[in-house]
Amino acid sequence: MMKMKKNWNLIIGLSITGVILTAAVAAQFWTPYSVTEMDASSVNLAPSLVHLMGTDNFGRDVFSRTLNGIGITFLTASLAVAIGAFAGILLGAVTGYYGGLFDELVMGVVNMILAFPSILLALIFISFLGVGTGNLIAALGILYIPPFVRIVRSEMIRCRDLDFVRSARVMGVGTGRIIYSHILPNALISILSTLTVTFNNAVLSEAGMSYLGLGVQPPVPSLGRMLSEAQPYLGINPWYGIFPGLLILLLILGIALVNEGLQREKA
Amino acid sequence: MGVLLEVEHLSVGFAEDGRGKNAVEDLSFVVNQGEILGLVGESGSGKSMTALTVMGIQPENARISGRIVFRGREISCLSENERNQIRGNGMGMVFQEPMTSLNPVVKAGTQVAEALKIHTDLPAKEIRARTLEALECVGLSDAETVYDQYPHELSGGMRQRVMLAMAIVHMPSLLIADEPTTALDVLVQAQILGLIRRLHKERQLSVLFISHDLNVIRQICDRVLVMHEGRILEEGSTKKIFEAPEHAYTKKLVGTAVERSGDFRTEKTVLTVRNLNVYYKERRLLPGRQKKHQVLSDISFSVREGEIFGIVGESGCGKSTLARAVTGLHRDLTGTVSVEGENRPQIVFQDPFGSLNPARKIGWIMEEPLRVRKIRDRQEREHMVREMLEDIGLDESFAARYPDELSGGQRQRISIGLALSMNPKLLIADEPVSALDVTIQAQILELLLKINRERKAAILFITHDLGLVRRICHQAAVLYEGRILETGEGRALCDHPRTEYTKQLLAAARP
Among B17, B350, B357, which would you mutate to test the A interface (most chain A Cβ atoms within 10 Å of its Cβ)? Predict the structure, then answer.
């Protein structure tokens, strides 16, 4: 037998994401310093053994805030992707399997959404919905529906006239079950990789929107929020901005590697 | 008779093939001047690889050893340029797939003329004249029109004729035909074979004819090589191979004529079709009047319990549509289709690669009909799947495998088992063996006959092969352009055809 080659992409990706997530979850319960408490005596300090990543302009511990902030960023991104995936898979399945006028309409809207830069659309949604974490999640969620619609729809169209679906119909399997149990498993790998790609976009968008002050509101830390707050102090205290940025980078790298690894598994 | 092509100890292998098994193993044969040599074998036997290697167009990563001598000259060691000269002047090749072997964006005439442009210094006028001559020679009477047509404007048979014209335009002495008729309908197939035979006679063309279809080989070849797993098992005159085969494999190959034994019919009728008309709507993007296209007209027949009823016709005659109408997959119809028993008739499709869900394991797939039948106990379902797997000649280990780990024959068994799990009174088999190798075909037919024998299941057997109808069907109907031309007892229908069309079908199928 041939020896299976180790899937390093998947291993390293899962390790990076795993470590970051464990730390983020732990930081929801305990951090070395309080996340919001200010300390006027230790403002804009460089990293040291006391403050591992230094302190910010209010004297808050950047290490504690960064770890805690990953949690918010991660939660926002996950919920947004979950909304997109749920609605997208549902819409894609129905439009793809049945086709017809409803399909044309949905695809029209989907293509319109895809034609705009996503950050611009998010801005438009936020201006209607108002500023706040919940609204940011809703806005991003809507934006992430199209990729899932497309992938599931095309798989439905490919499979609906194949003999295995016909044979299920002749057996008397219900339409819902044909869509969910017969066709959808064929799209699983594509859905998984779309999940990871969209999740990365969501992390970046959360950071971007919070940076613009439209997402997570102070004093709650999120990675994007912290970048935005660090900007005026980059000259005197670069550490404040470097560490949140570095963590965004690591999180995205980890998930991108997981995606790459999944693609290899598929092949 | 001189020797035209001599192949000595030819082996072809692939570097990355871990098992180190060669596709072609120590192959030696000769093609004499002016003979048609048949190379017969099942898929994977190495026959196409042999043809490609003789032509010098084997895959890049193939490792070759042995000698290929053409017109007394060793050619396997020649440079690409010198090989090109020989390909241009001495050998021509026709492939199986007429849809993909022509360039879709170049006119047919230009493609035929290509060889002359490269290998001769003839003036353009002369090239055009010779091209037209070649097109006429392959039976395209309106050569001027075909010259300026693109491949998509031509039918499958015409494309294959254009391919032949390409192969013979520079007057080669050897034609290599790799399954040239496999993708074609029976009647067109007969025409192309007749054409190759005529070219062979008129131009003293030698032919290396490759096919898995024994019937075709028998019709056209002087001498036959039987290939199996990269080796030649047996060699001899066509007469000898078919009438007195020596090797056990050849016997199996030649003697694959499965025949029905016994009659298990009862008086009960399981399917009645009366005055059936079936339509297809043309898809339109904009709303408006939709055109309806009639596919089947006024079809009437009935099938009794335990009966094997044949539906014969060429592709496009509506036989698959009939299967869909009877199973209820297609609903746009008038007339009546009445089925006895509580369960709908089940269907086995032609293509074993599309009929099983690639994302699910065999166990899950085979449990599905049981779930539909509301058998809720999982252990009971698993037990029933194990029994069914035994019944269809497989074993319980298959339950844990995915469809892509199975061969075509095994998949077709699973499809049959799936259909049987619904306990239908009627099984519809839509060309169930045409995508399979000859020896596998026999096994699947045996399985269908066993089901007919043991379960008294009626089978609606859809096929293009009249020989098969003669051997296994009690009753049969000939379908042509959506109408039933004649109905009759299976054997009588073939022995005493009443219509001209059935006679043509028979003539094409007869050795």
Answer: B357
Structural domain boundaries enclosing B114: 103-171
Contacts of A167 in chain B (CB under 8 A): 346-347, 349, 355, 415, 418-419
CA dist B365 to B369, B381, B383, Å?
A: 8, 12, 14
Alpha helices in A99-222 (DSSP H): 100-115, 118-129, 133-143, 145-160, 163-171, 175-177, 188-211
Cβ-defined contact of B329 to A2 (cutoff 8 Å)? no
Of A2, A171, A188, the CB nearest to B372: A171
| pTM of the predicted structure, to 2 decimals | 0.76
Domain total in chain A: 1
**Each residue of B376-393: pLDDT tens digit?**
889 999 999 999 999 888
Q: Same domain for B167 and B178?
A: no
Burial of B209 (0-12, 13-18, 19+ CB in 10 A): buried
Chain B, 312 to 331: residues with Cβ < 8 Å from chain A are 327-329
Same domain, B427 and B499: yes
Distance CA A251, CA A245 (A): 10
Q: Is the ipTM of this complex over 0.90?
A: no
Q: Say if residues B225 and B40 touch (Cβ distance below 8 Å).
A: yes
User: How do B231-237 and B24-32 pair as beta strands?
Assistant: unpaired
- Tell me the pLDDT tens digit for each residue of B397-412: 999 999 888 888 899 9
